[in-house]
Amino acid sequence: MLRSSTLTQSVTVTAVRHSHRQWFQSIPVNYRFCDAGRNSLSSNSAIFTWKRKASYNRNRSGMGTFTTRALAQPLKNADELIDSVETFIFDCDGVIWKGDSLIEGVPETLDMLRSKGKRLVFVTNNSTKSRKQYGKKFETLGLDVSEEEIFASSFAAAAYLKSIDFPKDKKVYVIGEDGILKELELAGYQYLGGPEDGGKKIELKPGFLMEHDEDVGAVVVGFDRYFNYYKIQYGTLCIRENPGCLFIATNRDAVTHLTDAQEWAGGGSMVGAISGSTQREPLVVGKPSTFMMDYLANKFGISKSQICMVGDRLDTDILFGQNGGCKTLLVLSGVTTLPMLQNPNNSIQPDFYTNKISDFLSLKAAAV
Amino acid sequence: MLRSSTLTQSVTVTAVRHSHRQWFQSIPVNYRFCDAGRNSLSSNSAIFTWKRKASYNRNRSGMGTFTTRALAQPLKNADELIDSVETFIFDCDGVIWKGDSLIEGVPETLDMLRSKGKRLVFVTNNSTKSRKQYGKKFETLGLDVSEEEIFASSFAAAAYLKSIDFPKDKKVYVIGEDGILKELELAGYQYLGGPEDGGKKIELKPGFLMEHDEDVGAVVVGFDRYFNYYKIQYGTLCIRENPGCLFIATNRDAVTHLTDAQEWAGGGSMVGAISGSTQREPLVVGKPSTFMMDYLANKFGISKSQICMVGDRLDTDILFGQNGGCKTLLVLSGVTTLPMLQNPNNSIQPDFYTNKISDFLSLKAAAV
User: Fold this and answer.
1) Domain A73-125+288-361's class?
2) Is A149 a catalytic residue?
3) CATH 3.40.50.1000 fits B155-284, yes or no
4) Which residues does chain B have within 8 Å of residue A204's beta carbon, measured at their own beta carbons?
5) Tell me: the pLDDT tens digits for B10-61?
6) Are A265 and B236 in contact (CB < 8 Å)?
7) Who contacts A45 (Cβ-Cβ below 8 Å, separation ≥6)?
8) Distance, C-alpha A39 to centroid of its chain
9) So what's the ipTM on this one?
């Protein structure tokens, strides 16, 4: 499979406001389409008329290039980085916490950044929780973070539907856990599926067919540990048979951290299954697609060059930052090690790397 | 997604016989690698050193071309086609039967072909049954077909393992139904998984990890209506963590005919899920990969140009025949209609098309 962080396609989607009848014919957001493995924002090709043009990454000097980026530099001057941006976007797992434990020095680092007037945003591809549920996790860990600062891919799915004026009389079929349902409910959408379908089985008899709701206009697929054939068939029927039905993925992460003890198959499994039966590629709203970045930039009115994305994964976090045109900082407190970063086969190079975010404090001190 | 029947890559795999310790380092079969959507024979890239070279289809005159094939012709002279080949390979569903009903005129057609000394072979991507179980289905429908004439993808999975001298002290983890287990057992392989894991659930607690058998050297994935997260995680662990573990797919069919009443999500779902979590592409042994075709040609010592592939699906059956360098006949008794064949967007053109295989009889009579 082709893997490249530097080869991208620019996708322009006409921003036309529309009646409910036309909601599936256009979407009002501009994206960059990232052709990096399958972790990409892709089209529901039967629905959207993408205007694709071959393009290539532009580095900050504005010079277009197909060559790989310069090798990442160890972060030496924290002040310089902090002063150069307005907003820090933090991935959570591997950056703020590991499983249920806070990473050393996080509260002090966040306090320092707030004291300097920096905007802090927390982004996670985990769709099993809603914003509110994440807020409780932050609280339990002793961190003072508001719901409005949290962007989970469960929220992104609902926000995406809002951004395209997905009609309120249509329904959403959910393959995923509770977080997606909660966010859809908050956004005022009708949904079905989710945990309720986890115990359902299909008993086949000659002539048997599964009925499905023809009002389903979008299937949202996220991580689902109660995934089963019933859900596969229901989602497949909606996408294949309901005209204009959207196929939205919260993320395509190969693995996730359900427990600290091992890596667990992630949302990429559930999305891969529905992609396999529908032969359609999903529209991904989580990292590394730029939907959340665009949403944040619009919501807070910030320039993307004023953002620094901080994460522990190259092919989601760092790519997400690079796709959005932000500065990027890799921390080695999660899944990526220095040898992985420096492996000649790795083409994803952040601007800087450091051990953990609290290095901001010691590197400030050292620079004084 | 790029779909083309004419763009292929030639894949040469060094045919080295090997000790058990080296079984995963080479495979003794030559393939053609088909880049048609995801229904392709692909490598476990970490394991095999494929020697790929860009190539393109050769038509029967030997002229290489990237252009689409000539439009399919209606079959007018059955005798000419019958006389030009030695072997007919029939897809089953949509060609021989539909669900549990025989298609009109099939027994007489098969009898006629046998009386003319033609070899008959029946190939199906359905892996839920073994050869023996398929034999019973033919018998129930009043057809005299021996087990040796039947090539289901369940059999292909076991035959593939034999062809690479997969060691008998290694184990196979099965995501799929009973047919695969039966074929593995007949071939003398140790296996685990299958229906037994259908009811298993994962109860997460902090620090919990799933143990897996380190002797698993291959994960075989086929259609599985009892698919669940336990199987996804078990298969993923084997492929990601057991050195050299193979990822074999019986097929990547998007949909299948569990009942006549509707199309059901097919083996492509289960394979897509494992591909999504492992970020590996499977080695596909069913149609349209050429493993079964190569196996048949070697077993019976027949030239592929002496084979006519008869099927009702363009992107599996007809592509399978074309990838193998065989003559191809599309029958309209299954899922493909004449407008679908003649749609300008369809690039897969068989040599001939006709309504059903018993047209062989009427077209013979008409030609006399």
Assistant:
1) alpha beta
2) no
3) yes
4) 225, 258-259
5) 332 223 333 444 444 434 333 333 333 343 333 333 333 222 222 334 333 3
6) yes
7) A280, A281
8) 9
9) 0.83
